[in-house]
Amino acid sequence: MIWSLIKVLLFVAAIAGLTYGAGILMDTGGGIQITMLGVEFTLGPLQTAVALLLLLVAVWVLLKLIGLLVAVLRFLSGDETAISRYFDRNRERKGYQALSDGLMALASGEGRVALSRAAKADKLLDKPGLTTLLIAQAAEMTGDTHRAEAAYKKLLSNDKSRFVGVRGLMHQKITQGDTATALKLAEKAFALKPKHAEIQETLLGLQTGQGDWKGARVTLGAKQRSGALPRDVYRRRDAVLALQEASGVIEEGATIEAREAAIEANRLSPDLIPAATMAARSYIAKGDARRATKVLKKAWSVQPHPDLAAAFAEIAPNESTTERLKRFHTLTKLNPDHIETRLLLAELNITAEDFPAARRALGDLASTTPNARTLAIMAAVERGAGADDAVIRGWLARALTAPRGPQWCCDKCQAIHAHWGPVCDNCGSFDTLSWREPVDTSGPSATGSELLPLIIGAPEEPPVVVEDSAKEGEVMPEETDPKTEK
To answer: CB within 10 Å: which end of the chain, N or C, has fewer?
Structure first.
């Protein structure tokens, strides 16, 4: 509203100014005399001003007419002129409209519509970077892999679109299962943009899948330098890759290099169980029992694990059961309340045929943590203590249907693995295996194995001999609380 008022006021002021100026010119004496072809023209001041203005307009129109004439002549001779640019602008308008429609169709999931609009835009526009990319993505959506591949290869000819072309071809090869070619394309894309987070992750996954541990360590370092990976995660994953390098060297039989690589992997991540066991075995091979013990004790203090106990036993393989139980005390005094420590003590005492000590070490694990291992150890304790066969069969029947206990489980797909590995065999994820209880998948057995305790008898305490005044020496079952049944 205010702006409209200002425009009106400015217009009135301009008219007033022109009127005032014309009045001054009319009151001014003198003028201009022009003689042309014997004809004399006398112009007053106002008439002179109007004549000059008309002359300027006439000159401007003349110049425009001359320019139009020149443009027509050039157009007739085949040169680019304003007339052809007019048609070009019209074609560009239609091309950009087709490109916009194609992008909207692509976002809406209409692959065929997007492909047709992209083809139309490609004909109307001289923008191969845009139209070719749209054709490639629309072709992928419709499942036309050959056309998509041809479009991505076309993008490789331009420096600005080369990375997009390489990335598109890489994803196509991954989808097709051609991981070897995908790895080479990922390396090219990484060389073009080493800080690209998606390329870093894809290249790392392909390298670990192909067993290129050295190259994977380089990629992992690039991820850490670009800030895409926390330092503690980087150290652990670098240790995992160093461990795999050590495993490869061991397979090749180069023991010296293998020992050094294994020790380096353990130094990078002392709590990595496979690295600790490999480093310990490398020290054992060198005859350095003290360092092997130190490595295993440090790892056991963080997370007790059966593999660590197995490696600890290899330090002195020919010792007696009593000597082994005494030597293992330096290990079991670390984390004494951990389930793995208690199970290890129970197994060692069973080997030493000290079944009461084994029962004390096992405690109430058979009832509080009933898995295959705790129940099997309980059956061994009962057998060593001379329990009835029905009792032993009862514990074994429970162990048959009980959970397996902690295992190597993938944190991403929950797949269970018999042995640790850097890559999940099921989903291909890197460094996702952890030692823990798997997700509960218990349910009715298809074979009816959960009925075995009913068939062969549930575990129960063996009968004890009690003295009675009437029937001395009669065998009676002992009534015990299930919670104190040990």
So the answer is: N
Burial of 136 (0-12, 13-18, 19+ CB in 10 A): buried
Nearest residue to 240 via CA among 432, 436, 434, 431: 431
Tokens 């299930």 found at? 482
**What per-residue string of b and e applies to 40-60 under the rule 16 or more CB within 10 Å gives b?**
eeeeebbeeeeeeeeeeeeee
Structure tokens at 288: 């350095």
DSSP states of 186-211: HHHHHHH-TT-HHHHHHHHHHHHHHT
Band (pLDDT 50/70/90 cuts) for residue 476 is: very low
Q: Are 364 and 486 in contact (CB under 8 A)?
A: yes
> Following DSSP, what letter does each residue of 134-151 receive, concatenated?
HHHHHHHHHT-HHHHHHH
18 Cβ contact partners less than 8 Å away, ≥ 6 residues apart: none
Least confident of 18-22, 102-106, 251-255, 403-407: 251-255
Contact 228, 250 (CB under 8 A): no
Sign of the torsion angle spanned by Cα atoms 39, 44, 48, 51 = negative
DSSP, res 338: S
155-166 mean pLDDT: 89
Tell me how far the alpha carbon of residue 99 is from its chain's centroid.
Answer: 32
Residue 104 to residue 428: CA distance in whole angstroms: 35
Sole residue written with tokens 């389930």 = 339
Identity of residue 238: D
